[in-house]
Amino acid sequence: MAEDDNTPARRINRRRLLQGMGAAGVIGVAGCLDGNGDDDPGDDAADDAADDVDTDDDDDDDDEPADLSGIQEGGTLRIGVGANIDSFDPPYSTDTTSSSAQFFIFESLVASDTQGNYYPWLAESYELVETNDIDRTAYEEYMVSVAADEEGVLDAEGQIIVQHPEDDPIEEDEVRILTTEEAAEAVEDGTFGMQYRYELREGIEFHNGEELTAEHVVETARRYEGSDVSAQTFDSVLYVEEEDEYTVSIYAQVPDAEGEGQLPGFYIHSLEQAELEGGEVDPRQGNTPIGTGPYELVDFEDEQFAEYEKFDGYWLEEMGVDSLDWFEGDDEFPDGPVIDEIELEIIPDDSTRAGALQNDEIDVTSGLATATLDDFDASDDFIVETTETGGYTYIQYPANVEPWDDERLRQAVNHLVPREAIVENVLNGWGRPAWTDIPELAEESGTADAEALEERIRPLNEHDPERAEELIEEVEADGVEFPIEVQLETNSDNDDRVQLVELIAASMEESGYFETSVETYEWNTYTERVLNPEYGQEGHIACIGLSGTFNPESFCDALHNTANIGQCCNLQAISDPEFDEMVDAARFDIDVVDDDELRAERYDEIWDLLAERRYSSITHFGLTDAIMSNRVQNFSTHPFPESMYSFALHAPTEEQVIWMDDDEDDDE
Amino acid sequence: MLGVAVVLLMSLAAIFARPIVVAGIPIQPFGLAPHDPGTILYLGADPSAGIYDPPSTDYPMGTDNSGRDLFSRVVYGGRYSISIGFIVIAINGTIGAVYGAVSGYYGGWVDEIMMRIVDTIFAFPFLILALIIVAVLGSSYWNLVLAFTLFGWAGYGRLVRGEVLSIKENEYVLAAKALGAKDRTVIFKHIIPNAMPPLLVLATLGIGTTVIGVAALGFLGLGLGPGTAEWGTMLDATRETLIQGPEGQIPWWATVFPGGAIFLFVMAMNLIGDGVNDALDAQETGIGSQGGGA
User: Fold this and answer.
1) Backbone angles phi, psi at B168, to 5 degrees
2) Would you say the ipTM is above 0.90?
3) Pick from A351, A418, A520: CB nearest B242
4) Which 407-446 residues of chain A touch chain B by CB within 8 A?
């Protein structure tokens, strides 16, 4: 998933761009663009996870069980966020800040912990009922033909669930597709890849008094059709079926190794709001968002702040945390968040947020320039908590433009990317060089042997100007003229990222084979620019941040799959059928659904392929960071920035709860 | 004279900061600055150098946020600011002189229309106009020049027009016209040369204004590309250091030296402007009090 740091963006389909450096997503989603390298990560959460990689100088004590005896109820948590809340409408937003603002209000059928394990949440229980060994051609008999215009745009109404894999909308006038209507028929006949059945808890109340039923899930799924996250949702979901008032089944198109986390990724809407048009679940449209979550939105001023208050009828407080079958925690663990009010203060400039934190205008923030983190970390008045995220920053080469279509040239530049210097000098140590393409949190399902993978791939990613020169000389011998002029681009509102790009440009320039220039754009302008399908023809090297998940696919698919051209985040229109096939086989194949080892091996093959073709260079994996005043007690970070605050406030999966210690500061 | 000395020194330092090579032929082989302004020291030149190293004997002005030698960058940075200042003023002065002379010489509805155009331009804040132009066209050296010249000539036009109104009544002008000289000859041979003194004073002060304007756009992130050794852009890159974490130390050298260079140059240009004004009879030109801020 991609997410953008602070910023972002619309139309990015379930991934989130990171404006900042961290990033990742919550259940079921795939990626978010991240604009700022340090700020905001992604969105979905989920999958497996991460042990938190604390930076060495951290003083956290994550391993000790928290002492819950000192919990103080009440108070207000003031959070400084680095971007405006673009939307409160879950399927119509893809940036991390919006997601984190929504997660106080909306919940899913399933919750995940920081390790990527799943737990029933709004569902009391769930089970995998059936798996069928089929591929997408199995839907052929249910498909209908629709016209395709010259550009491959289909004349179809409603959500296209499956497009016949053998039809090419650009080459052919008609294409066979499956929409929701035909999907229902297929399911009725028993044609589907997987079926998960969810038994909903009875008595869960929405903020408007409605009671959660299967109909809510069905209507929510309908609202995801044609939304900003439809591509990421309906790459796997086939159909959502109400079995009885409190039972719902979600079907997958084909066997999906990520089905457990991806299928129930809907944030459940009230019936009152499930009918609204896209983007209308938003106070700016006159609709206060209604969910089942622990907080209600009470006030919102665009570009200024959002205020939440505890919801009196929160189901978990009504039922008690012991009603969660899987909960085995402390008796003292509260049934819901103990903080009464939340204020999200929107403060785009990171140094202003640093100042606000020191002036006691906010209690906690994230995404500060790494240079100031050391100061906060050293101070007794503040606490810095970090965790390695799935958020990563990468540069992508214009592989369709000469001479960049030569993989040796891309490999050469990759050897000029000084990953260690980036982490040490640009990030002041607050990150980890990307020696392979996956962070620790995705290693469990993403490689059969992480050490062996690093041993194999790391030499290809080392800063090695000599090896770069050898490769360039080979390219030169084939008639390519040097120096090559190239422009490197990134978003201007992330100082660390700009410096990172400058550093890569300087390193390329130093080799004597490149004449580089650096161009920066405001975040929204930039995402629009790089997500344009024509961008790949311009011949620039683009740098952006993306939020990944526990799913190893999120570190390769979004960047390189043909399906993601013009979406997040195959910026350079890379189309490699061999890669597409491999990435599909590592997830949508019955063999890998049942065999984790095989799946990991298939990903290993993908990393080897990418190391050779080198369409992109991932520079480093970021940290989710939270910097707070010492009044905030027991804060623990989540690997996905968009989930950080909702997780910290109350998460029975890991007995996580924060409270405000008013004894620390009598002024308040 | 002090102003002239400072400007000369800074200009020469900028020119001789690094060798200038055109089409592979070195036309200026000297290199006063010890490092290329884009060289990130820790990448190879000096692995022990860090970011925001304080001034030392090796790096008299310290290093910047990317570990580049600040002294080299400040010296080299004059190439951008000073050259843009001179180019912009040359263009503005030329356009303004011709525009004002035509307007003042012909008078009547020509003057009326031309001056209303100038009024329209004056109705917009100049720096905002420049900012919009750069934002629309993108940032590059020549786009900056364009941003400061597209409407920047208006003040010169108005000044020259005022001068011409009085000059054209002089006997030598009337005589030239009576002798049948063409309008073009009269304007370029008799009128513009006599309108030069006030124009020169305004142009001298205008260089300082332009340098500040370029630096202002750079500071707003709309000047040259990030990492360019232009003074305003250098200040922008260190902006975030002004708010530090608890007990953090502000790397003062990263802002003081580029800021000082801007101050020194603009101050010197203003001194020169005053000097020229005095030399050319300030009472007549009456513009000695202008200049400075963008």
Assistant:
1) -70, -15
2) no
3) A351
4) 418, 421, 425-426
